[in-house]
């Protein structure tokens, strides 16, 4: 097995970057990027902590839940989760952030890179209230790089193709998988998939 350990060897394998691919990277949000963000109900957030390990986490809400403040600023409310706070802790240690926006039915994606700060401001949180429930914090993201990513990955994966979807019943529930991984946690019931879905519906916001 041959490891690739330097940039020259890597570039020799892949060749030079195409001019259009190089030039497509923008330093701000243009009208097309803003349009994609306004329709995107899902984004993957990438961060890295002090230990150097990368972390990617999904965020989803109604289309346009990530708000465009201006050409170089995004606002992203943090909804209730598991309180591990992996992303937020990473951002305190290293503010670099990468965002991958997806729209169901569209194979192209949007990549946005920059830095983020965590804001805990009542007036700002109130802008993102849902059914009277406010996020605890909002990420303010300063945009540095923006580009549309080609459709090949989603085409290969057939991500939006109904014929490619699995039957969820081939997997145990999340609670059952966690029980197998870490054992029974005292006071915590092992939920069925339907029980978990119903509980999540009550705690989305």
UniProtKB/TrEMBL annotation:
InterPro entries the record matches: Pyridox_Oxase_FMN-dep, Pyridox_Oxase_N, Split_barrel_FMN-bd
A UniProt-annotated Pfam family: PNPOx_N
Domain Pyridoxamine 5'-phosphate oxidase N-terminal: 30-150
SUPFAM superfamilies associated with the record: FMN-binding split barrel
Gene3D superfamilies linked: Electron Transport, Fmn-binding Protein, Chain A
Database matches in PANTHER family: FAD-BINDING, PUTATIVE (AFU_ORTHOLOGUE AFUA_6G07600)-RELATED (PTHR42815)
Protein name from the UniProt record: Pyridoxamine 5'-phosphate oxidase family protein
Species annotation: Methyloraptor flagellatus
